[in-house]
Amino acid sequence: MNEAAFSGLNPQQAAAVRYLEGPLLVLAGAGSGKTRVITEKIVYLIEKKGIPARGIFALTFTNKAAKEMASRTTERLTPEQRRGLAISTFHTLGLNFIRREFAALGLRAGFTVLDADDSLSLFKSLINHSEYKDIIEPKAAQWQISQWKNDLIAPQTCYEQAQDDEQRALASLFDQYQRQLAACNALDFDDLIGRPVELLQRDSAVRERWQARVRYLLVDEYQDTNTTQYELVRLLVGKLGALTAVGDDHQSIYAWRGARPENLNRLALDFPNLQRIKLEQNYRSVNSVLQAANHLIAHDTTTESKQLWSDIGAGEAHRVIVCATAEEEAERIATEILHRHFRAQTEYRDFAVLYRGNHQARLIEQALRKLNIPYSLTGGQSFFERAEIKDAMSYLKLLVNPDDDAAFLRVINTPRREIGPTTIEKLGGYARERRSSLYAAARSMGIQTVLEPRATERLNRFCDWLDGLREMRDTDAIDIIRQVFDAIDYPSYLREQEATPKAADRRWQNVEEWLDWLNKISDASSDNGEIMDLPALAQRMTLLGILDQQTREKDSNAVALLTLHAAKGLEFGHVFMAGMEEEILPHRDCIDDERLDEERRLCFVGITRARLSLTFTLTRRRRRYGEWKDTTPSRFLEDIPANLLIWQGEGIEQPKAVTQAQGREHLASIRAMLGKPKAV
DNA sequence: ATGGCTGGCGTTTTT
DNA sequence: CGCCAGCCAT
Fold first, then answer.
1. Among A17, A142, A465, A482, which residue carries the largest CB count within 10 Å?
2. Predicted TM-score (pTM) of this structure
3. Cα A238 from Cα A222, distance rounded (Å)
4. A 540-559: CB within 7 Å of strand C
5. DSSP of A276-291
């Protein structure tokens, strides 16, 4: 092997890229270049080992990560070389699998992928029409059933193992939910992984076909896999174990939603010839940051010890700023950012404020606005929650799958077709009895016996219209959708709904924006040689959701406001961690719990986002649900050696509104008061 | 059908 | 304390 091919990689990274003798687990510390290892390995497999790109599968958890990885390989490979290369999320792989194998799963072409909202609506409707109305909370049911699905437990098994009435009710609800999905020719997100696993397990021909296809599999953020995802990985790689899994148990922060970090250890049991490589050199942070992180995480006994180090420099001690109240904390963060921005010509995009819960963002937002500091806030997928976008998506989904009840209900009276609640209620009852979709019920002969003649007539008109549209399925997807909006005169509908024409215009613009976005999706995938038909477009749309918005945010030069969870995978020059208090971090519900370690890892993730500087803030008293309570500094601060922390607080005067000049002046006074931060 | 009021509740979030 | 959802009243 030519060593020069790996210039720029350290020995461990190079070994991870080169190792092909069996399954490989790369324990990659924060900032140790794990994405780099995966992309280099893909390039290596294609260029040096002659494995065709279409035999290589790389899996991530988020669209963003998949996009990032794809763009990094694009830089290194010719279009010819990377043709057919599958870099995607677990869910997209599952979708592609099901698109090929749907018949064996009892689905019809054009099946719908329900998003979390649609699935919740389905639960609500099932619960409301069941005997356990008022006993079962829809959200809780959705969560529990999702857990079951992710643990590969069938409704039947749930029922047999149920300990009490509530569990029996949930198990029965699970069963009804799955039946209803089948009736609607629909799947939820969990099914995108679960159904392929089920088929691969029971059908050896399918399994062998897929195992032959998957020449090499790479998995990112392996510690975040749940039972189903791990099973999918295992089934796809077979006994050969042509697998590289990259993960970091220190960054396991999603156990609360079903991730099984123990899958890292399970790998060694399932593949006795597993090779392990640790990456401990960090390419992101100064050593004071890494020391804080190392000491903090040393208290987590459930994870494997890794000592991060870098040759980036010593760094400064981290400040711990104690504020009287949360308002003061927010103001303090804002003025600190302003000062540093002007003092060191630091771009706003180099700052991040991290916090445990979204509600903490509000005050910080206000404080930043007061000082005219631009900021970006993640967590809002508001664009896709807008009514006009949901309407538009429902029309598209319904064109593809008339049995999609969620879309059917959304659209049937939008715009008004005088099909009211009474008709829909009767139709729904009829459909439930026959375990069919609403559309199928509307189309059945017997429906006339239940409905008023006038209602039947309106319903038929709507269904005929839908059928007519579906006839045109060969027309370009975007064209059909435009025709639909034309036919229902959606802009006029919006004008009726909105008080001002301006507001209606704005909403129509959103629809236009959505159409542009759809165009982009269908173009992007035709790059891969696959023509995107209407069903594929509708299905993929549900999975891609928020990508666009995230991209837009990236362009702006603004301070990032993020939850600690959302910050994973990102890095910033200067990081503020707000609310370093007991009952916030660690969260109050996790304090006396085995979940405490996950809180510590969350803190670890926050710390390791920082390249150069780290500032912790906390308050002395905080208002919780209207009541003032004294607070205690987070135990995690105690886990960081005292010489790495400089506590500040009492007697430091807060600046009022700050102009640029006043900012410099004030900063000088604060620095005079505090003295220079001492180097470590 | 729509809006206003009240009561209950209040982690983290992707697909 | 604030927000949302759901309910009730118009």
1. A17
2. 0.84
3. 17
4. none
5. EEEE-B-SS--HHHHH
